[in-house]
Amino acid sequence: MKEIEEQLNELKIEDYIWLLFIFVSIVALISNYYERKYVVTKNKKDFKIYKTINIDLLIISFLVYLYFSLLSYKKYKQTLKTGNIRELFFSKLNLFATSLFLIAGLLNIFIESKSDIEAGDIFL
Prior knowledge:
- Helix content is 88%, strand content 3%.
- By secondary structure, the protein is mostly helical.
- The chain has one domain.
- It has a two-stranded antiparallel sheet with strand order 1-2.
- Residues 119-124 have low confidence and may be disordered.
């Protein structure tokens, strides 16, 4: 019974995450608007607005990936107890995949925060 309640709670959280992604999509469109304005006008204010929005969206996405990684780790630990080799293999694979998402998210945040569109490359 506790497992069912826990699974239902996780699904409820996922519902909120999907709503969050709708919000993220709308804000990303706003970011694109400011990026277009910057491309046409070269206004530094527009540049700063769209870069800030992009970094914020990447941080939100990273936090979502972190949540799914923690869930994946939790399921991996549960699978260790069951002893089923097939489930353990897929649980490890899922944990590996979510780890890659976390690494990619961190790299994207770093690149977006350090990139200089006028220079056309990354500065450190």
